[in-house]
Amino acid sequence: MPELPEIETFRRYLDHTSLRQKIRDVAVTRERILKGVSLRQLAGALKNHSFRKTERHGKYLAVDVGDGKQMVLHFGMTGCLHYVDPDDPDSRYARMIVTFDNGHRLDYDNKRMLGRVRLVDDFDDLIDELELGPDALEIGADAFDERLRSHGGAIKSTLMNQSLVAGLGNTYTDEILFQARIHPATPVDALNPADRKRIYRMMRKVLRKAIDVQGEPDRMPRSYLLPHRSDGAACPRGNGTVHRSRVAGRSAYYCPACQPRAGRKR
């Protein structure tokens, strides 16, 4: 599933390929992806306009289309963007196709159709409506610590809670906790202040590095978990093997030697 680094990569890609181009047409091949807006309303907001600027919050990408409207994209588990030449065929999984005056197209692909396209007047209002926490790269250390301490449960599932911080999913929480040497099932109330501070630092470090490599796991440093994220793989620190378990119903990859499970409040 695309997480914060992938969405930031999509945002920069859209900025690089598609801003300030007049939109000639909008097609939606599966109206199921539309949330709270009809195809007619979406096309009316986009046609003869252009994408003016973008912003991101967590896993959501907002595109200013003028006249006080923003198109908001969520990518679900399989979504992505492709800017294609006029002669290129549409992707098999293109669910929304925006055609520009120059003939080029921006395809919103979503194989499993779990993503959604919205049209809103105010992105901040949508963030409030969805009860999203601060963006994981924007929140400060003190605010993160305060919010984390107010939550219960295992640290992995807590970090994935979008009301705590927005943008983290299954993949990057594993990496953050590996870098912080915290077992994914560790209860939040078993973490001491140094643990929480380390998790915050590693969160920022991992997300920034993932953005640098455009969300491609194989391009992450070999000292990171992501290139080795499979059950039985060698620990990148040479401390044993990577294990797979389930934490609050979700897969978790970790090294038991590097990330011993906490047995009591520290």
TrEMBL record:
Annotated Pfam families: Fapy_DNA_glyco, H2TH
Gene3D superfamilies: 1.10.8.50, MutM-like, N-terminal
InterPro entries xrefs: FPG_cat, FPG_N, H2TH_FPG, Ribosomal_uS13-like_H2TH
Domain Formamidopyrimidine-DNA glycosylase catalytic: 2-115
Keywords: DNA damage, DNA repair, DNA-binding, Glycosidase, Hydrolase, Lyase, Multifunctional enzyme
Catalytic activity from the UniProt record: Hydrolysis of DNA containing ring-opened 7-methylguanine residues, releasing 2,6-diamino-4-hydroxy-5-(N-methyl)formamidopyrimidine
SUPFAM superfamilies: Glucocorticoid receptor-like (DNA-binding domain), N-terminal domain of MutM-like DNA repair proteins, S13-like H2TH domain
Entry keyword DNA damage: yes
UniProt similarity note: Belongs to the FPG family.
The protein's name in its UniProt record: Formamidopyrimidine-DNA glycosylase
Lineage: Bacteria, Pseudomonadati, Pseudomonadota, Gammaproteobacteria, Lysobacterales
